[in-house]
Design goal:
The structure is a homotrimer. By secondary structure, chain A is an alpha+beta fold. The first copy, chain A, has nine helices and 20 strands. The termini of chain A are far apart. Chains in contact: A-B, A-C, B-C. Chains A and B meet through strand 9 of A and helix 4, helix 5 and helix 6 of B.
Amino acid sequence: MAPASRDDGTGGAYARAPRAHDAEITEVGPGTPCGELMRRYRHPVEKSERLGIKPMNIRVLGEDLVLFRDLKGRAGLITPRCIHRGAPMYYAKVEDAGIRCPYHGWLFDTEGKCLDQPCETDRPEFRARCRQPWYPVEERYGLVFAYLGPPAKKPLLPRWAPFEDIAPDQKIVTDAASFSVGGDDTEELIPWNWLQDWENTMDPFHVVILHTSFSGPQFNPEMAVMPNVDWAVTPLGMQYSAYRRMTDGEEMVGVTHVMFSSLRSVPIVQLSHGVAESMGWLVPVDDTHHRTFHITRMPEDFDGVPLVTAPVLEKKWSDMTEDERWRAPGDWEIQMGQGPITLHGEERLAASDRGVVMLRRLLREQIELVREGGDPIGVHFDPSVPAYHIGAGNFYRDRMATAGA
Amino acid sequence: MAPASRDDGTGGAYARAPRAHDAEITEVGPGTPCGELMRRYRHPVEKSERLGIKPMNIRVLGEDLVLFRDLKGRAGLITPRCIHRGAPMYYAKVEDAGIRCPYHGWLFDTEGKCLDQPCETDRPEFRARCRQPWYPVEERYGLVFAYLGPPAKKPLLPRWAPFEDIAPDQKIVTDAASFSVGGDDTEELIPWNWLQDWENTMDPFHVVILHTSFSGPQFNPEMAVMPNVDWAVTPLGMQYSAYRRMTDGEEMVGVTHVMFSSLRSVPIVQLSHGVAESMGWLVPVDDTHHRTFHITRMPEDFDGVPLVTAPVLEKKWSDMTEDERWRAPGDWEIQMGQGPITLHGEERLAASDRGVVMLRRLLREQIELVREGGDPIGVHFDPSVPAYHIGAGNFYRDRMATAGA
Amino acid sequence: MAPASRDDGTGGAYARAPRAHDAEITEVGPGTPCGELMRRYRHPVEKSERLGIKPMNIRVLGEDLVLFRDLKGRAGLITPRCIHRGAPMYYAKVEDAGIRCPYHGWLFDTEGKCLDQPCETDRPEFRARCRQPWYPVEERYGLVFAYLGPPAKKPLLPRWAPFEDIAPDQKIVTDAASFSVGGDDTEELIPWNWLQDWENTMDPFHVVILHTSFSGPQFNPEMAVMPNVDWAVTPLGMQYSAYRRMTDGEEMVGVTHVMFSSLRSVPIVQLSHGVAESMGWLVPVDDTHHRTFHITRMPEDFDGVPLVTAPVLEKKWSDMTEDERWRAPGDWEIQMGQGPITLHGEERLAASDRGVVMLRRLLREQIELVREGGDPIGVHFDPSVPAYHIGAGNFYRDRMATAGA
């Protein structure tokens, strides 16, 4: 009865069960398990230099907030609607002492304390009840870091060794563009879940296929060599070491690190020898968007953006047509194509996904640790703790004597 | 353990409870408490002069409807999909007797009665069952007023004294632009809840801050004088009287009225002496949009729009850049910034919000009255009731003898 | 007490019950009653000639899929996210043996079998578990037909007699434009439910009103003659015969067919004598969108699109302004105006809607038949079944001797 056909009818897509994303390790809103883990860390929310007299609307960890700097130079981060009657604090004006609401002129300092209510007979006890909800911020490395967690658990803002003790002929370049995920300086808001980006960092094999053999060499043609890879948990997160024998016979190892909450340090993709001089934060904007902030140690006279990839088609990403992106897709096309949050329930993880598996396990462990009242890794409260070392870089065997892994 | 810091960790935004809007006094859809109150009044839905041979899609109180005028000049308001098989009555054509559906030619009069079914053998009893749902409309002051309430409770369309007995050298100018909320003639649909706009009318203090000291004088520089204010309930709603001593020593009082369902009469913002010659309706389009219709008594030879504000930047609102709006925000920026419906649960009302508090209380009382079967204020069924007086205006003490408050 | 008024207060729109669409006969997603009926048929999803080296994102019956052709010419239809880690198969590249994922290079054939995993040590038993969900496709008449149903119920792809045995001087023209629903070649995605379009085919009376007297003759002025109509169930669906006496006294009958799952054959609307040489599929994209695919038998040297209507305003539909569409609405304006899915609960069906009523009844019967485990009409598994005959056309009494009805 059945027609002659080359298909055997098995494995079809009919009546497959609907699959979902894994909410526990991806969603970051207030009160979510991963959101509470994230709220135990400081996150960069903007470049310091962008904070002028005009307040900025920002969104981080699913919360809409207004970031400002008073005329004394102090940064503040408050809820976006005036506690009085909901006027938008984006339209507020900054003064020496804080920020003044445009509607009825209430003035708040960077900790939300109400200092003035010009349409009221002053009643200090009433003013004290009119506190604008706020979050603490701190600036370093050209970035404004916010802490959205429980006040009693506020950790110190970590220092990172590669960006301390900058030599006089060097500087730190701070960047908010989306280069590291295949975009460029025309787009900073990355429209998919942060974890797709972060776990891609622990996947050395997509570099061989996507960035080299599939789309043509987006980084370095030597990336086509299939590496031997070791993965390991570290005090701050995890790392992998990818060993390659280059076409000239040299042996090298590329070491990539991810650190909690959601940082990474990737060795230079042109494969030159040396420690990584760049580090980036992946900051969840909400469940389906994230931003990246990178700092890079550069010569003092460097003038530009530390662009990490050489587009195979010799065109900026934002200038590429849809057809050109189809011819040479990069991280942006792949990760966005995974969806706003990828459907973990549909995956078939393989041996090469060991880094992804380890990273998710580590993330679950930290989520559980916070749920049980503990402090997650990378969080500290002791000013005597030294700056964190990382260890990412490309290391060639015959140059190891001078560089060290 | 805790780091040295200028913040004391209190009053933070972490783990604040989510707050909502107050649905009872803001939502207007069919069957909602406030929607049922609103449905006891007539609301203007369009300017009469716009109603030509082309039916218009309108939305009011959350209902989509089609407004038309038959060739005999009668206005009609019906549901937007033909009762037969749902064809869009926007595409219908008007005739002497009513409006004809484009799909199968059913003809309905302004009360929805089906007069013709050209593809059917005529069966009057079937035709009678094919009645298009409709609402009564009535025209006055250049506006089409609709009544969306229970037929048995249909009140008379009120007359308003300032707009009756127009002298031969005067006329009524009817306007649908959004000037009164800080917009202009390029936008009539105001994308936030009507109550934010209405209660702003009962707030004399934002005029001092927002419209004068904060954004520069949008109305009259004398508005910078902080007034003494009295509030009072009136037979039709409520009013406030704002007393000021002007810089030249003159004493004046500005009296502003709001009337149910959602009207207002605001004295001229340039502060010239005399009774207000303008009145406006705030018409809820749906829960998150409203429109305004204003009528103004003007000289017969007036040619233009009675523009109420002088933009501080000498630019039309619609020509302002986002940055210019940031420099001089007005009612549009503030009220839109409160959100589609403001979050009442977050507010900290102060002494200066007495008008807002009173107006909300009055609104709740009227909602409750309707719920219990009563007729809300401002509704009447008796043709002998005289035209409603208002009483808004700017009154200078030394000119009171001739003007009266 | 009640005011004098010409309205009697009855039949009003106040407090009317909310009405819904009939989900059973309109919704087509996986597991829905109508969706399961639809999944027992083959549906065209794209024109064969469009399938080059670039995979195509398509949506059909509410499912997002990727359609591709391998370099050996075989078409394949798979789920859009790689079974490995969700990378978008739209960005995949085709090879001789199948399609290769851009992320980690997994290669799948047109039946979803995984042939290569370059970043893995090959383990055939693991590969076998990594099967990409797929649906069978087959090509005919210039179209790619997909089968989204249960494998055990896969029917043969029917042949249609009018398009078999094409003479040497003829050809089949295949078209995906929206002409048949009042659109044109600028739009293929029709933004409303498929059933509104299909049942409109069984409505001979809207042709008299909408397409002729209301908008001016969009087809042939003789369509203004109100026809006598017979309806009848057929082995493949149903038909109607519309009898007209033309202005020159000639008698003719126009016979229109609809066939399951969602096909139609409409005689030429210019009313010329002869059998219909065109047939179309209405393919549900999802619950609120559909596409049409038409095949037409044309002379070999025909160069163009078999455009079915002559626009009354001598303008292409896509060039018409909103006002011009209002002056001469066609099927697009009416059916889109019925809404994304029309509200069946609001309808008042009349005698002239007999075709619509019969078609919906037939559809419900087939849905019920499938629910009970049966095979719906038009489905067969026997290669010896001859090509399906239709029988649509315009037939003039005095030419019947040579043409036959």
